[in-house]
Write a structure and sequence with these properties.
By secondary structure, the protein is an all-beta fold. The chain has one helix and 52 strands. Among the domains are: 111 residues, Sandwich (Hypothetical Protein Tm1070, Chain: A), CATH 2.60.290; 109 residues, Sandwich (Hypothetical Protein Tm1070, Chain: A). Strands 45, 46, 47, 48, 49, 50, 51 and 52 form an eight-stranded antiparallel sheet that branches. The longest helix is centred in the last third of the chain and has 4 residues.
Length: 618
């Protein structure tokens, strides 16, 4: 559908808060282990601020690593593992320089093994190996090697204070992390059937180690003695996830397609819920007062959240990508859920409270992601990228010329001085030169120095012979907020019409009130809408008008916006002649990547006031 971009008299804005998601109480695990925790919650409570937008801050080349497999980030270090060469590389997280490279025993293959690190020790193993190595991080010196009774692949270890814990295909072992001296092994005698262990991580909490045996039994073992405390048959199996926090161990059971909550002290099942679709592996996360399950439902990447206490399904959302695929590499930090959509090859940043996608990046071939130390680290073929949060806000509409002006005010909400850069763009995403007062300078960007808590103002002069529309971004080194006031002035400078709105954030689904009416001949009240795509990907938008009057109806159309492209239009233009002269309802905009949107109430094309634009759950 072709849209007539209504530039004549249309000056749009956005009432749209640019804030990070509201905080739920974070629940860290017992001991931090390489950006996660020993409870396997997938939450890094110490990752720092990661509120989007996220931009590439650093890129570390790995020219000899075309097929990296795993990634850890800890203590300003990056550990990359590759199964084809059975090598691990330790990098400086600030400079990318390589501290050391260590080759471990084993044949080439897919490296399904996540090392564990704490202090000056890291546990390493190869793709197909029966040897575990403890390596001194500062020197790469091998502290000890332990032959295992079978494969450790898929059975990720732990390094706890004073104890290293790992599983192989035969048993679970606890040892001194500095010497390798074995404390205990489970099963240890023929009194317990030698069923081995499942390909699943071990977890620890409340002085207990939790492991899934080969027959699917969940075993709780005393951390000090190795004594079996309790066991629960048929709890899980190969590919299951374990997460242990605050007195409960949660298990995904693939064979029964259920999610279990088991009391840590007694082994009693507190609740069991069906799993939607096929769970990812790993796909169970715990944080911010919720359980998150990542799965593929009929091929669609799906995120489900449960109440950890009751198992009640709180909400479920489907990734808006057109492509089928599974959500992978899920992690939690800063009230955000990070995951990778394998089909669309997109890194997603989701509001952990509502399921709203707040940012998206196209990254083909991603192998792992880790939020840590104020950055989101991405492992890609031959490189590691560190993405940093950017204090950037969006103004979805500008209008200038033929008496139309845009007045921008910017406020520094931090306690430090910052410089804000305002950039102007046309509806195609190209830089837009505007005449800025009072000096009448024609510029494509403006730099504003803002003291702590200070503010600044700039306005377009509106003196151009033709009316031009576009949008703007404002970036700074500290948090900022902004408003845009859209004015129409006469020849003497007297303001005839004005409407002010706040800056906008980007989201994959928004809704707003929308209406068009002609109460008397020559008087038209209409909704003006502006949408901009601030990402680096092409956005496919589905616009739905849920009409209430004059009769209930659902009107729908699809729009494509290239990166940086901007669409301003009146309600009746979006849906052609299907919007009658007296119509009102709700306009819902859904996009496969986040967009910024805004809406105004207009009279004969001139702005009267703004409509709130609400981020809504999918």
């Amino acid at each position: 559908m072709q849209f007539r971009q209504s530039l004549l008299k249309l000056c749009l804005g956005g009432l749209f808060a640019s804030v990070c998601p509201s905080g739920w109480a974070q629940q860290p695990g017992d001991y931090a282990t390489a950006g996660s925790d020993s409870g396997r919650s997938g939450l890094n409570p110490h990752a720092g601020r990661l509120c989007p937008p996220l931009v590439v801050d650093k890129t570390f080349a790995l020219p000899d690593t075309p097929s990296p497999s795993n990634l850890l980030v800890f203590d300003e270090k990056i550990l990359v593992g590759e199964g084809q060469s059975n090598r691990y590389m330790l990098l400086n997280a600030r400079t990318g320089s390589r501290f050391w490279t260590r080759t471990v025993p084993g044949s080439p293959g897919e490296l399904d093994f996540v090392p564990a690190a704490t202090g000056n020790i890291v546990l390493l193993a190869g793709a197909t190996t029966s040897i575990l190595q403890a390596v001194e991080i500062s020197s790469s010196r091998i502290l000890w090697s332990a032959p295992t009774s079978g494969q450790v692949s898929g059975r990720h270890p732990l390094v706890l204070p004073g104890t290293a814990v790992w599983a192989d295909s035969a048993r679970v072992t606890a040892a001194d992390p500095t010497t390798g001296t074995v404390f205990w092994q489970f099963p240890a005698t023929s009194a317990v059937p030698a069923v081995g262990t499942s390909r699943a991580p071990v977890a620890a909490a409340a002085d207990r180690v939790f492991a899934l045996l080969g027959d699917g039994t969940l075993a709780a073992v005393d951390l000090v003695s190795g004594r079996l405390v309790w066991q629960l048959p048929l709890a899980g199996g190969d590919g299951s996830d374990l997460a242990v926090v605050e007195g409960m161990v949660y298990v995904t059971n693939r064979s029964r397609a259920t999610l279990l909550a088991v009391d840590v002290a007694s082994g009693v099942v507190r609740w069991e819920q069906p799993i939607p679709g096929t769970p990812a592996s790993p796909g169970l996360l715990l944080g911010f007062g919720r359980l998150y399950l990542l799965s593929a439902v009929d091929g669609r990447a799906t995120i489900s959240t449960f109440d950890p206490s009751t198992g009640e399904l709180l909400w479920q959302t489907e990734d808006p990508s057109v492509e089928d695929g599974a959500p992978q590499h899920g992690r939690l930090a800063d009230n955000l859920l990070f995951y990778y959509h394998s089909g669309a090859e997109r890194v997603r940043v989701m509001d952990a409270a509502t399921g709203t996608i707040l940012w998206s990046l196209h990254r083909p071939g991603l192998r792992s992601l880790v939020p840590a130390a104020g950055s989101l680290y991405l492992l890609l073929p031959n490189r590691v990228e560190a993405l940093a949060p950017e204090h950037r806000i969006f103004i979805p509409q500008l209008a200038d010329g033929e008496g139309a002006q845009t007045l921008l005010t910017v406020v520094n909400v931090s306690d430090s001085t910052t410089v804000a850069t305002v950039e102007f763009f046309s509806s195609t995403g190209a830089p837009l030169a505007l005449e800025i007062g009072p000096a009448a300078s024609t510029v494509q960007s403006v730099h504003l120095s803002l003291p702590a808590g200070g503010s600044a103002m700039l306005h377009t002069l509106g003196s151009a012979p033709g009316l031009r529309a576009g949008w703007a971004t404002i970036a700074a080194s500290a948090p900022i907020r902004a408003t845009a006031a859209y004015q129409v002035v006469d020849g003497s400078g007297r303001v005839l019409f004005e409407a002010g709105v706040e800056d906008a954030t980007a989201a994959d689904r928004v809704r707003m009130f929308a209406a068009r009416s002609i109460p008397t001949p020559g008087l038209e009240l209409n909704t003006g809408v502006a949408v901009v795509n601030p990402t680096e990907e092409t956005a496919t938008l589905i616009l739905r008008y849920l009409r209430r009057e004059p009769s209930p109806a659902l009107l729908e159309t699809t729009v494509t916006l290239e990166p940086g492209e901007h669409l301003p239009a009146f309600l009746h233009e979006l849906f052609s002649d299907e919007v009658t002269q007296n119509s009102w309802g709700t306009l819902v905009i859904e996009s496969d990547v986040p967009v910024a949107a805004t809406a105004l109430r207009t009279q004969n094309g001139y702005q009267l006031s703004s409509y709130p634009v609400a981020i809504s759950k999918r």
